[in-house]
Amino acid sequence: MDLVLQLLFTGIGIGAVYALVALGFVLIFRATNVVNFAQGEFSMVAAYLMVVCVELGLPYWLSFVIALSGMALLGVIFNLGVYYPLRHRTYLPVIIATIGASILLSNSVLAIYGPQPQVLQGWFDTPGIQLGPVYLDSQYLLIIGVTILLVLFNFWFFEKTLLGKKLQATSQDKEMASLLGISVSTMIMITFIYSAVLGGLAGILVAPVLFVSIQMGSTIALKAFAATIIGGFGDVAGAIVGGLALGVIETFGAAYISVPYKDGFAFLVLIAFLVFRPQGIFGERVAEKA
Amino acid sequence: MSASDNMIPAPAVRSKPLIIRHLPYFIGAAVLVALAASMQFDGYILNILLQATTFSIAVFGLSVVLGLCGQINLAQAAFFGFGAYAVGLGTADLHLNFWLCLVGACAITLVAGAFLGMSTLRLGGHYLAMVTISFQQIVTLVMINAVGVTHGPDGVANIRRPELFQSSQSYLAFCVAMLAIVGYLVWHLPDTKLGRAMRAVRDNELAAGVNGIDVFRTKVSAFAVCAVLGGLAGGLFAGGFAYVSPDQFSFAESIQFLTMSLLGGVASPIGSVIGTGLLILIPEWLRFLKSVPGLYLAIYGLSVILIIRFMPDGIWGFVSDAFTRWRAHTKAPPVAGALQLKPATTGGDIVLEVTGLSKHFGGLKAVDGVDIAVKRGSVHALIGPNGSGKTTTLNVLSGLYKATSGKIVLDGTDITSMAPHQRTAAGLGRTFQNIRLFRSMTALENVEIGAERPGNTMIGKGDDALTERAMEALTFVGLGNRANELISSFSYGHQRLIEIARALASNPTLLLLDEPAAGLNSTEKLELHELLKRIAAQGLTIFIIDHDMTLVSEAAQHITVLNFGRRIADGESMAVLRHPDVVSAYLGSE
């Protein structure tokens, strides 16, 4: 029982990271109708930025601010260089371009920094607290806390602010939004910046738990995408629930079934959902109008 | 539309058999094979040629799935690896015959490709991209971790070749021959029934479905063909290099295949060979790049973005575009005779019988308990104000929506629960309000897809009969002389006529026309009216939805009126149009 509780805690912690990246996926998908296959690389790049800054001797908080600012900048460059020129084409060229961007980002970091995985220390000096039978790692607590805060922020931002409503309007009907005087390209730019920062935040949070490596981006992205399908594609709540569920499933799978195939469980769950419930937990089937 | 009258019927010319027409290709291929077998290459060149040859076959697969069918596959290296391991483990560990292993490689990849495709291809393209990436990762995981079977990271050594091709030189010649054969098949594929179906699916899935194409099966076929070509290529690769290891079949290699395909031109096997050749040779010239890990792939990533942005059709696409424009001015094939419509008459007097048809979207009753009976040989119109449920009814009839309740019987066959392509096979033809043609194809190719409807009794066997039928249909609507032009060069009104020709070529039992007059100017409307008369004169039953009261009242003998999803009037045209409920629905009551 103790082990189950411990695994549950770890699973939710790692699931929260998937949920954050999945949220970034969903936001870009809703705004542009495109799945950004470089979303995971945002996490990886942010983690490396963090490592570089900390190694330069900067304080942790300052490194954090620099890394996230860097991500905002990357969001701008990504939008202008990858999405914007292709915005009038069908989805296929755009996803191929984002795949190209993902390869470019991960291998540029590899070329600059080399293949050695890096270690990033956690935010807190205390490693964690013992609560009854369960050991609560401080970094996992931080991840869960930040995720809860972000989900609340997200809700407030999209439902209660004018900017959030403009973003929603843009994602639902670009033509109508532009007729109402909303600058669609600005809204899409904001979405890319926000998603890049979200992905970066997830990367920085998870870095002390995993190693900082070139592969971390694609690993997280695959799980996050599986999470969005499990939750219901394009659904914000679905992304969060799917991410948490996947983290828990994977942690239990690694503990009770097989460690080397840990990364394979997400795929199996994904296939099961695609076959039996492709609309996910929260999604609805939609048909194209003739 | 009068063009059909002054068209002089020419006798049909039988074209020469394909084998004869393509003889130059086979002679060229034979020369290449002879060269590969006789020229003395040193080991380094030989390896590069062997790699280029086998990789090209794998990239052919991508030109089928991505170029022809518009579906993505980011796991081609995994299928390549399946083939390589099948031949590797089969010949080295199990001491099986090479040929047996090669066949096994194809069989395994066929099953794996079909399974992966079936699990995902009903869904949108994003799913396929992610699922293939996941599949690729899993395959790599298994190759590395299942040490007992795959030898793990050590890889498989001592892979054997067939007795016949023991020397590297002769094995290369064998691979070049395989490349030529597979290349020929892939090159010819777009002009086969399956190939046309793939292109139709790529251009417009909905229209493909209502023209009798099983969209899902077509996509799965394309995906499976791609996987098999990957497996075959992998098997040949393993025999060529005698040693394989997991890192040769990683995600990075899948991306390399994709880049090769995009660079050369995704739509053609010629592009595949160009792209593969370039991406194998260029890195050999720029070897210094390999000294920095990652730099090499970073450049690949950047090239993908740049190619997609600036050269979406690749190198070969650029060249062949010019050729297509030139071909548009070539003469259309001759027309043998006038279009014959012989609608099937298995059922009774009523061609289409709809009883109690309902379609609810959540709480909204878009169509609510509607009955319609369409008499054989008549023109029957369905009218009603905006939002009355007309188009929903048509979409339920053609199977794009599933009926909530009710029954649809077409010529004695219950089609209520059939998929769109099955209804088309049962004798339904339709056009769309917002025209849905296959944009990358010529007018003739569009109509050929219609003519290919399963169960079309009006065409004989072979491609010539198909072309003949399509030409007759195009001539019938007056566009026979522009058959080889691309859809984009036709005016809106003419595109509508091509859509009608596409439906007519299939010799349907019932023709559904969704607002055919929408967006037409007054001359075009008159021409449309004439065309409808000529169609009706051949005994084809027409079910038409339109707003244009003049067209409806002149063309239709029978009218059904919908309002708020319910039938409010039904009967002979003039009587229905004077019906007080109909008048008030359109003009408001006093």
From TrEMBL, chain A:
Which key words are in the record?
A: Amino-acid transport, Cell membrane, Membrane, Transmembrane, Transmembrane helix, Transport
For the keyword Transport, the answer is yes
| Pfam families referenced in this protein's UniProt entry, alphabetically | BPD_transp_2
The transmembrane residues are: 6-29, 64-84, 91-113, 140-158, 179-198, 237-259, 265-282
- Top-level taxon: Bacteria
Q: Note the topology in the membrane.
A: Multi-pass membrane protein
Name a biological process GO annotation: amino acid transport
Query: Key word Plastid present in the record?
Result: no
Subcellular locations according to the entry: Cell membrane
Give the UniProt entry's GO cellular component terms: plasma membrane
Give this protein's Gene Ontology molecular function annotations. transmembrane transporter activity
What does the sequence similarity comment in the record state about its family? Belongs to the binding-protein-dependent transport system permease family. LivHM subfamily.
Q: What is this protein called?
A: Branched-chain amino acid ABC transporter permease
What broad taxonomic lineage does this protein's source fall under?
A: Bacteria, Pseudomonadati, Pseudomonadota, Alphaproteobacteria, Hyphomicrobiales
UniProtKB/TrEMBL annotation, chain B:
- Show the SMART domains listed in the entry: AAA
Keywords annotated in UniProt: ATP-binding, Cell membrane, Membrane, Nucleotide-binding, Transmembrane, Transmembrane helix, Transport
Which residues span the membrane?
A: 20-38, 44-65, 72-90, 96-116, 128-150, 170-189, 222-243, 255-282, 294-311
The record places domain ABC transporter at 352-589
- A Gene Ontology term for the protein's cellular component: plasma membrane
Where located? Cell membrane
- What Pfam families does UniProt report for this protein, alphabetically? ABC_tran, BPD_transp_2
Molecular function GO labels: ATP binding; ATP hydrolysis activity; branched-chain amino acid transmembrane transporter activity
Matches recorded under SUPFAM superfamilies: P-loop containing nucleoside triphosphate hydrolases
Q: Does the keyword Acetylation apply?
A: no
Q: How does it sit in the membrane?
A: Multi-pass membrane protein
The record describes the protein's role as: Involved in beta-(1-->2)glucan export. Transmembrane domains (TMD) form a pore in the inner membrane and the ATP-binding domain (NBD) is responsible for energy generation.
Protein name as annotated:
Branched-chain amino acid ABC transporter ATP-binding protein/permease
